[in-house]
From TrEMBL:
The keyword Transmembrane helix applies. The chain crosses the membrane at residues 491-515, 521-546, 578-605, 625-646, 673-696, 708-731. GO terms for molecular function: DNA binding. Residues 80-93 have a biased composition (Polar residues). Residues 59-104 are annotated as: Disordered. Residues 9-64 form the HTH cro/C1-type domain. The lineage of its organism: Bacteria, Bacillati, Actinomycetota, Actinomycetes, Streptosporangiales. Keywords: Membrane, Transmembrane, Transmembrane helix. Pfam families: HTH_31 (PF13560), NACHT (PF05729). This is Transcriptional regulator with XRE-family HTH domain. It comes from Nocardiopsis mwathae.
Length: 803
């Protein structure tokens, strides 16, 4: 800040009668920051910080302009009509610079979180653009023109003009290198990008984000891409969609913000996020009109929306309105000149011992035929190669596959229509990318495993089939896509094994020291055989009841365990976290304890030979259900409540990729196990003494001596902790179902993580934050259809799944 601005800031503060400390508290800015700004020693300050101070001081528009003048010209706030109707489009200020009237005043913590988010988003999408080989050899020349008038709002509304003011002619045409500049010409900050399937909408959205973040006058709002494929606007509000997406891909934003709530929610509420909503056409058919209506309820929110034209047009007719305040552009088809400039450069020269240049002329005959347009084959192929998707598939199949000849694409006998050509390119993509080649080395120096194309297509087809209806392929959703009976059976079997083995281990090591009776291996085995299945059934019943408390599949953990210290000056709320977790887990513990009570009764029946229908046995069963339910319910509720207090958001890079999210969840699960075993053991032992003491006079006599406390506590702690980690966490279900059950049945490979990473490297999958997606929705649909055809013919299906 300049000396003049610092002097003005000091004068305004003193005029308001505030000390630096009082101003810092009111504005949510550090005292040292204010001191450096007033003395002119801060050469690297943020526009949003200065706006926070101006808001706290109730600065006049003239003083605000003087404070922010050295950073950026005073912006016109969104939703405010232009003061001069004859203003030129180039003078229109983007609606998201600095602090806007519609934004909630942001604290220093929010500004810092927005800056960190911007850096992470930029790194992530730059890496993804490189992985998709968009710049190689150069970006395809995607161009656009203004969308039809019936798919956009009135120009007066888009330009936010007062009544009677004539709209200006704003040129929205451009190409892939000017998408950010085109957006800046839109006064409302709302843009719809339309195009046919495969026309490059998603790639354009990535380029828009990168260009906007790298601009010298970087926006106050951070552009973040959100997929809309699985959005149900009737159950999930737009704000919740944005917050959930931020928490999934950036788990550090789960940290508490000033005033309560998460940083993710605070960033959305403060208007510091510019949503780039990708894939409106992937929303379910009957929900697009409702989705458009939902978007129209927040007209002042700047956003970018991508969609195929036909689906968007139908939604406009259903909602009786386009996206309000939104301008629109429609992507154009690639031309023959575009193809002639691009495809030959994708066929690199290969040394053949002569000067012919190898494959450099691979596309010459095809381009000559396309330019002539004299045959039906050339007309069909020109119609297919109008989109970047099909051009990319053709490049992979012919420019990058030795021995292939693109002239076969002109054969009308094999490919009589454009649809046949497109299916050929889609069908040939997987064999092309999985062709045998020299093995590459992985990051640890080991050669990467070669994948058979037929098996890879079968496994990818299964993933596409299970992911039908959505684009995001999260590793935790693979197990969740299985039917409820399969998942419940998994919980029962896992819990049975964990509890039985725990009893055998504890009985073998502790019984000789704490039990007066002679050590009896047969009795220990019998105890495990009885308690294990009863506990497994109880855990299965608790799992079935989970949907009443939690919607959807088990989500990955976005937290780590640490001491509950205050972070960034934000007070944690341990009481609320403890209470919520205690209530749910206590009910589950009561169910499990009741199941163990029946096991104890069965053990008594076997040992003493009493009839199960004996009144004394039934009375003992009821008593044990009450006592064990209270013991295990109270202990589990207290321990898991404590665990909730110890949870803290992951660091900023923990979920940058699906592999990192999986790794962090594995680490979290291991730490949870190490914490749960001793605390749950101690909790069960202590709860037993308390419950028995309270009910001894009422329903006694009850026995809970030291041997019972040690044996039940140790076995319950070890068995309960392992059952929870392996059956109730996203990582545990990934391990037991995705890594064991599905490979065992031939539906997925054993090394699933390596397979997904390999598919990503080959360009079959792409990464969007912490999830994978198929390269394009059309490829996903093709693999889905192929998999269904395989299942209709059992012979290919068995061959594909064979080891």
């Amino acid at each position: 800040m300049t000396d003049q601005s610092g002097t003005l800031l000091r004068r305004l503060r003193k005029h308001a009668g505030l000390t630096q400390e009082q101003l810092a508290e009111r504005a949510g800015v550090g005292v040292r920051t204010i001191r450096r700004l007033e003395t002119g020693k801060s050469a690297d300050h943020r526009l949003a910080t200065v706006n926070l101070l101006a808001d706290a001081l109730n600065a006049s528009p003239e003083d605000r302009q003087k404070l922010t003048g050295p950073l950026v010209p005073a912006p016109r706030e969104p939703g405010t009509p232009q003061s001069a109707p004859d203003a030129q489009p180039s003078q229109l200020s983007p609606p998201f610079r600095g602090s806007a009237r519609g934004m909630v005043p942001s604290s220093n913590a929010l500004v810092g979180a927005a800056d960190a988010l911007a850096r992470e988003v930029g790194r992530r999408w730059q890496r993804e653009e490189d992985q998709r080989r968009v710049p190689d050899p150069f970006p395809l020349p995607v161009r656009w023109q203004q969308a039809p008038a019936d798919l956009t709002d009135h120009a007066e509304n888009i330009q936010r003009l007062p009544p009677g003011a004539p709209p200006q002619d704003v040129d929205l045409s451009g190409d892939v290198g000017s998408v950010a500049e085109t957006y800046r010409r839109i006064s409302s900050g709302r843009l719809v990008i339309l195009g046919r399937a495969g026309s490059g909408k998603s790639i354009l959205a990535i380029r828009f984000v990168l260009d906007l973040l790298s601009a010298p006058d970087s926006p106050g709002r951070v552009p973040v891409i959100f997929g809309l494929g699985s959005w149900d606007p009737t159950t999930t509000a737009l704000r919740d969609l944005l917050v959930d997406g931020l928490l999934r891909d950036h788990p550090h934003l789960a940290e508490r913000a000033p005033g309560g709530g998460t940083l993710a929610a605070a960033l959305v509420d403060a208007g510091l996020i510019l949503p780039v909503l990708d894939g409106f056409d992937e929303i379910a058919d009957g929900l697009r009109g409702e989705a458009l209506h939902t978007l129209n309820t927040t007209p002042s929110m700047p956003l970018v929306l991508t969609s195929r034209r036909d689906e968007y047009a139908r939604a406009v007719r259903t909602a009786h309105s386009p996206l309000v305040w939104a301008a629109g552009i429609e992507l154009s088809d690639l031309t023959l000149d575009d193809l002639a400039g691009y495809l030959p450069r994708t066929a690199r020269p290969v040394a053949h011992g002569d000067a012919s240049g190898g494959d450099a002329g691979l596309w010459d005959a095809v381009m000559t035929e396309l330019r002539s347009g004299l045959t039906q084959g050339s007309v069909n192929l020109a119609g297919v190669l109008r989109t970047p998707l099909m051009v990319g598939l053709a490049r992979t199949m012919y420019s990058e596959t030795p021995g292939s000849d693109p002239e076969e694409l002109l054969d009308t006998t094999r490919f009589p229509t454009e649809d046949h050509l497109e299916e050929h390119l889609l069908a040939g993509f997987i064999p092309a990318v999985y062709r045998r080649r020299a093995p590459e080395r992985s990051d640890d120096g080991q050669p990467r495993r070669h994948r058979d194309a037929h098996r890879a297509q079968h496994w990818l087809g299964y993933l596409a089939r299970q992911n039908r209806g959505r684009q995001d392929l999260g590793w935790w959703r693979i197990a969740g896509s299985l039917g409820l009976p399969t998942r419940v059976l998994n919980v029962v079997l896992v819990a049975t094994l964990c509890v039985a083995v725990s009893i055998w281990i504890v009985g073998a090591f502790l019984s000789p020291w704490v039990v007066d009776e002679p050590w009896n291996l047969g009795m220990i085995l019998l105890q495990g055989a009885l308690f294990g299945p009863c506990a497994g059934v109880a855990f299965g019943a608790a799992y079935c009841a989970l949907p009443s408390f939690r919607r959807g599949a088990v989500e990955p953990s976005h937290v780590r365990l640490r001491l509950p210290v205050t972070s960034r000056g934000v007070r944690p709320r341990p009481v609320r976290a403890f209470t919520a977790r205690f209530t749910i887990v206590m009910l589950g513990g009561v169910v499990v304890g009741s199941g163990l009570a029946w096991a104890d009764v069965l053990l008594g029946v076997v040992r003493k030979g009493n009839a199960f229908t004996d009144p004394g046995v039934l009375q003992s069963a009821v008593t044990n259900m009450l006592v064990f339910g209270l013991i295990f319910g109270t202990a589990a509720g207290l321990v898991f409540g404590l665990l909730a207090v110890l949870e803290a958001p992951m660091d900023i890079t923990a979920a940058a990729t699906p592999v990192r999210l999986l790794s962090s969840n594995r680490t979290t699960a291991a730490r949870q196990f190490l914490v749960l075993v001793p605390t749950l053991s101690f909790g069960i032992a202590l709860s037993g003494h308390v419950v028995v003491a309270l009910f001894q006079q009422t329903i006694g006599p009850l026995a809970w001596g030291l041997p019972s406390a040690l044996l039940f506590g140790a076995a319950g702690g070890l068995g309960g902790a392992s059952s929870y980690v392996l059956a109730f966490t996203a990582w545990g279900q990934w391990l037991t179902l995705s890594r064991i059950w599905l490979p065992l049945t031939g539906r997925l490979p054993w090394d699933l993580v390596a397979f997904l990473d390999d598919a990503y490297r080959r360009g079959v999958l792409r990464q969007t934050g912490a999830v994978h997606q198929f390269r394009h929705i059309r490829l996903q649909h093709h693999l889905d259809r192929t998999f269904c055809d395989q299942q209709a013919d059992p012979r290919p299906a068995r061959a594909a799944a064979s080891p």
